[in-house]
Amino acid sequence: GSDADNDLYINQAVVFIEDAIQYRSINHRVDSKSLWLYRRYYSRTCQWILSLTITIILALAFIEEPSSLTVTSDVRYRPPAWNPPCGLTESVELLCFLVFVADVSVKSYLIGWKEFWKNKWLMAYILTLIVSLTDWIVSLSFFCTESLRIRRILRPFFLLQNSSMMKKTLKSINSTLPEMASVVLLLAVHLSLFTMFAMLLFARTKDNQQDKEWMVYFRNLPDSLTSLLVLLTTANNPDVMIPAYSKNRAYSIFFILFTVLGNLFLMNLLTAIIYNQFRGYLLKSVQSSLFRRRLGIRAAFEVLSSLKEIPANAQQPYVSAGALQQVLQKVEMDSRCKQAIMRSLKMCSCDQLSAAQFQKLFEELDKDAIKQHPPSPEYQSHFMQKLQFVFGHPYFGYLGNVVALANIISICVVLVMDADKQPSERDDFFLGTINCFFILYYLLEMLLKILAMGLRRYLSYPSNRFDGLLTVILLILEIATFAVYGFPHPGWRPEFMGLLSLWDMVRLVNMLIVFRFLRIIPNMKFMALVVTTLLDLVKNLRAFAGILVVVFYAFAITGIMLFKGAVVPLGNTSVGPTSSWNIGPTTLMTLLITFQGKMCFHGALLHLLSVNLICRWAKIYFVAWWLISSVIWVNLFVALLLENFIHKWDRRCHRASLSDIEYQRTVELMFRDVLEEPTEEELMEKLHQHPHLQLCR
Amino acid sequence: GSDADNDLYINQAVVFIEDAIQYRSINHRVDSKSLWLYRRYYSRTCQWILSLTITIILALAFIEEPSSLTVTSDVRYRPPAWNPPCGLTESVELLCFLVFVADVSVKSYLIGWKEFWKNKWLMAYILTLIVSLTDWIVSLSFFCTESLRIRRILRPFFLLQNSSMMKKTLKSINSTLPEMASVVLLLAVHLSLFTMFAMLLFARTKDNQQDKEWMVYFRNLPDSLTSLLVLLTTANNPDVMIPAYSKNRAYSIFFILFTVLGNLFLMNLLTAIIYNQFRGYLLKSVQSSLFRRRLGIRAAFEVLSSLKEIPANAQQPYVSAGALQQVLQKVEMDSRCKQAIMRSLKMCSCDQLSAAQFQKLFEELDKDAIKQHPPSPEYQSHFMQKLQFVFGHPYFGYLGNVVALANIISICVVLVMDADKQPSERDDFFLGTINCFFILYYLLEMLLKILAMGLRRYLSYPSNRFDGLLTVILLILEIATFAVYGFPHPGWRPEFMGLLSLWDMVRLVNMLIVFRFLRIIPNMKFMALVVTTLLDLVKNLRAFAGILVVVFYAFAITGIMLFKGAVVPLGNTSVGPTSSWNIGPTTLMTLLITFQGKMCFHGALLHLLSVNLICRWAKIYFVAWWLISSVIWVNLFVALLLENFIHKWDRRCHRASLSDIEYQRTVELMFRDVLEEPTEEELMEKLHQHPHLQLCR
């Protein structure tokens, strides 16, 4: 019937507008039942359950058999980790798999059979599930004694496929790969030619005293390759050249040439290439988001314009304001936006909306939420007004900064004085007293500011919230200290009592004070710019970080499986600072942390084990990790940072006058000036290609 | 008289055109005598003498007293360096100073008194000379026994002031300093806050077993600062966190936070800032060069237009073709350009040249020299034509590459097989034989190519010159080997004979073969692009490299003076691989090479000497060097590389069709499409501001 049709159209419009808000594709089934399922599927609860499942299945690695979740990383002192009985983690896994099966079925159903075949991600999802379930069955049939578990390496895929941003980024990285591969090839050629040169240059001589270089670094082809590869990461520089250099200074020319060509030219060329390929990435991604939004709104307009209440012979399609209101009631969206749209709909006071008017109404979605701080209280008394003026003045804030600085300096002085003292010689009286006074000042500052600004206005500034929270915590800690240990007096050196010793309490207070000092950041213009850039970057970086997590997880699991039991306690040798085998500046640290005890990269151990097969694997494994994380990922990060920063810096002048208003910046807003609005033709062409929606016209 | 005036005008025009060609400023005296002096001063001989003087005064450091110009760097085995007698280096120095005094007087005279006061570089030059001469007198009056020689640190200034490109770059770097300083300040804040945190976190505890972290890395404020600063350079990562990490894995959070914030964010932010500030640098510098060129030409036009032979009442100023020809005869310039200008002047066949026509004539200067290869010889015989077709075909070149690759692989195989053999067990027969055959093939290839292309065409390709030269050297080496050691036969292992042993000869041949393999580069498209980018970069980088040399020289001299005799032979401890004190990836290596024996950064020595005052200085010295070279210079380099590469990459598509023609690329040509021509008004305004030239109109 017509009413049912109308209901369907309304529902379609609701879903399309929700798609537009969330930047989702509108290419899904649009019949009543599918729409109901679609809204359920994208409801907060369902998505939350899905995210929880992904988290759980990823977290399983921490308690599964070769895990290293212990306090100490020292293999000698570490108690044996808890091994869950066979079937426990497996049943949790099965539950997760069932959720994923449901997820993939709903998703496949919703996009329809024809679209399914085009969607490689969905097919890979199904394949991953099949492999995982098969592996799970094999695992159970061996009663969990099998050593190879493929499904554990596949787990991060579930995280990857659930984020459209990550998929988009991966596509983008994929398109950069050919150029990157060229430079990596160039690096490989560079490395191999220099390796051959090195082997010819530092060959074995008859005099055993003279060929230290050959003995340690260039004994054979794999050793030479490793030495130079590690030199490329600058980790064994200058150790690697010292023996040759002591013999003859001219040998250093070889190492300088290698480092300058490899490290200065080729490595930075990689940065240049990645930046060049990535320059348009953010803009393109934001542009496609905008297109999805406009398309969703347009689709809603088109279905609403086919509502039966309107004469079909009208020249131009239009939508009645009543229908739109009906739709808006049903749409789930930010209440501020909804109200703003309702308001402009009323103000427009037109019954019929054209396509352009319809789009214009929804432009509210693209606008910044300009945050307005609540007003200060208005005091009647003249004295109170004066107080308000004094303590609401920026100079009072600056005074607070100066006091915080003084506190930091006093802590620093005490630290320097106490640095070499035995714990039993330390006198906590001085620090205890001054901290007490400083904390009292902080409390007073907070109260006076609240008095001047009113509680709501005070809390509306993030810097005040940060400040106030720390002040309250400091106060509680201080009160607790006095309650347990009494007031400070000379020679105040009580023994351990309660949960924390006095010394620990004082340390904690000091750390919080150091942390509180960060409140100065918004007061320094350049620092504020840098910090907002970094915060923006963190937002844009989530997809990148996600991909790094995916790769890292796969690597960690592979590493755990490869090197299980490779490090056995060997008396004292297995512990102590790892020496120069430090591939890849920051990233190895991360890998290091996860399975510190499970690897043979300890300087001492490396030489012991280098003849073993396992360390060959370790080398390849580390080189792969270094290439992916340190070379590619870090360069991608630099590219993103350059793009963000340059964009922001260019806009700094424009914004200078508006600096008082805090913008809720998003990537979409950052690029608003450069984005192109999609044309009517593009939108309609895309709409006509919709696999499930038959438009009347 | 009028003739004398005319001569003066002609001479002025000649000098202005020479200024335009060399991109020099035209703001110098323009009377007859000054012009004569000016042309003498900028003549090749004078400039060559000046460069030689600068080289000599800089090179003095290698033979002056605390020098380290010995073959070995090992303080134990090193023979005492040769000490020149007092007065030898000093008299060379005096000669150099006299040349500089002459230089500065001529320069000051030529730009005139009024301009002199505006020129800070000239004043600094004079000041440097005064200080140096005073120091020289002090030195002689002490009979060379004084320890502090300021003039040695000032020496690189002479290099700096002689290069306009370097001065320009320095100005550019100077304008970037405020932003860089902000980030460095941010880094300092980051470092100091984390140091305080670390000192609170890793404080001394009662249990001596537990505070390894405190003992080694965070004993007091300077130690903590150093540990974290070195962590920022990733040199002591992960060593620094191992003790704390073994105690409790949670401590790693501190180190990860520090590294991610400092190394990933702040350090890369520095790259972004420097790139952002430097983006326009190349373009701006090329633009100002273009302005100087146009200005010189215009000035020549203006003085020529005031020649008496032309009626003064003419509406538009113009220049007679005869006068221009007269000027061109006298101008020293590239003969190809001169001929081209003469030719267009004749083709134009107009007696009077307007300003626009005059400028147009000299546009020849801006054009690429398109290199045309001489034609191949034309053979009469049908057989020879066929031969020419076969061996002139690119496929013959590819075959040569394949053969070179096969040679490389065979050397590699032999190297792998011989890697662990004693020198006495090695059999050089196999390698000797195959190398002999390969070299014969190379010779044949060269001869056939010469046959097909003709000698002149063959030599006009740089890749052929490279190839041919190496082939000839290889041939000579091979013949020498056979002459000394006879033909190879199984068990061919002769003893040492003549200048080099057989084994050294074979090694040298192999190295040359590996080097010859680089001929494949132009055949691979991407590699060729990368290599030409790098070569372009090297051209643009000369100014940067010069500044690095200046800074490095000053640092090296300071270091030699500060740490003279700091490293004394201590049995075995002073030698052996330096351990983790590896500040700054590539640059320390450079510093290291220069005065390896004079520093206390050896891992073992660092701990021995860390209580001494000298190592405090060493720390500050190294941190300064690290900041300047590794942080600032490397980032400038990356900025330049990004700019060069992105520009080149964008133009790749345009040039693809023209790839057969080899361009003599210069920075000026690279930016030609984007450069703005200066307007007539700008030129005339600048000309009227000329301090010495009075224009009639």
What does this structure look like?
The structure is a homodimer of 697-residue chains. Chain A is mainly alpha-helical and 697 residues long. Among the domains of chain A are: 43-162; 382-523, Four Helix Bundle (Hemerythrin (Met), subunit A) (Up-down Bundle); 535-571 and 578-662, Helix Hairpins. The first copy, chain A, contains 30 helices and 2 strands. Chain A has helices at 2-21, 32-41, 44-59, 88-111, 113-118, 120-141, 150-154, 156-161, 164-201, 212-216, 221-232, 242-247, 252-278, 281-305, 321-330, 335-348, 355-361, 382-392, 394-418, 429-453, 455-460, 462-485, 502-516, 525-540, 542-562, 587-595, 603-609, 613-655, 667-670, 680-688, and strands at residues 319-320, 352-353. The first copy, chain A, has a two-stranded antiparallel ribbon with strand order 1-2. In chain A, helix 9 (164-201) packs antiparallel against helix 13 (252-278) and helix 24 (525-540) packs across helix 28 (613-655). The longest helix of chain A is centred in the last third of the chain and has 43 residues, at 613-655. The first copy, chain A, is globular. The two termini of chain A are 21 Å apart. Chains A and B meet through helix 9, helix 12, helix 13, helix 19 and helix 23 of A and helix 9, helix 12, helix 13, helix 19 and helix 23 of B.
